[in-house]
Amino acid sequence: MQNIYLRQSELSLSQTAFILVTVTDKKGSIPSNIGAKMIVTEAGLVSGTIGGGALEYKAIEYALELFKNKTCITSHKINWNLQKEFNMVCSGEIELFFDVVNFNKWEIAVFGAGHVSQALINILITLNCSITCFDSREEWLNKLPNSHKIKPINTNDIAKNIQELNKNSFVLVMTHSHEQDWEIIRECINHSFKYVGLIGSKTKQKWLKEKILQENLPEETLNRIFCPVGISVGNNSPSEIAVSISAQLLQERDK
What we know:
Elements: H1 2-13, E1 18-27, E2 37-41, E3 44-48, H2 53-69, E4 76-81, H3 82-86, E5 93-101, E6 106-111, H4 115-124, E7 129-135, H5 138-141, E8 150-154, H6 158-163, E9 170-173, H7 178-189, E10 195-198, H8 202-214, H9 238-254
Parallel strand pairs: 6-7, 6-9, 7-8, 9-10
Antiparallel strand pairs: 1-2, 1-5, 2-3, 4-5
C-alpha cells in the first residue's frame, strides 16, 4: 500500500488529474476488501487494486468515462450489485468512493509580478489552483515563491499569451504600466474568460471607461471587468489588497 500513497503524492505534486477509487463498504460475496484502493489517470490504472477481475475492470472503465465526458467533476460514492450490474456469480453489493483530484484545475493568470502580485500569489499558492505569472521584468519574476503551482513567464508578447490561456481562466491585470494594462484588457475583451480583474482606483475605473468608449466598444463591456479589483475591505497596503482580491476570486469561483 506504500506504493499507492507514494504514487498519489507524485501525481498531486505534478498537478496531474487522477481518481482514487476506494472500497468503502461491501455486503455478501465480494472479491475485494474494505479499504482496498487503486489510482486511475487518463492513461488507465497506474497503481493499486480493488480485487481485479470484472469489478476492477468496470471501475476503471467508469473512471475513464469521467475523464472522457466530464460527466462528474466532484468526488462521489456509487453502489453496485455485482449480479445485477455485471451479471457476476457473486451476489454481493459494493460501495466505491471515487475521489476526484485535480480534475478541473482552477487556472489563474496574473499579468504583472509587482508588490501586490507577490503578496497575492503567496496567498493563492495555499489554494487548489495553478498560477501563471507574466512579466517582462525577470528580476520581479525571480522574487516569486518557489512552488510547483506557479509558472513564471518572461514575455513582452502580451497578446499571444492571452490567446493561449484556457477560456476558464481567471485573469488579473496588475502591471507597472497603464498602457500595458489596457493592451491586456483590450485582448481580454475579445475572450470569454470567467473573470477579469484590473487593479486600480475609482479614478482608474473612469480611465478604463474612457478607453472603452474611445475604442467604440459597448459601454456594458465595463461590467465584465472588475475594476477596482477586490472586495471593499482593508487599506491600500499590498498585503491587504491581496487579501481583498483573494476573497473576490473565491466569491466568483464559487458562483
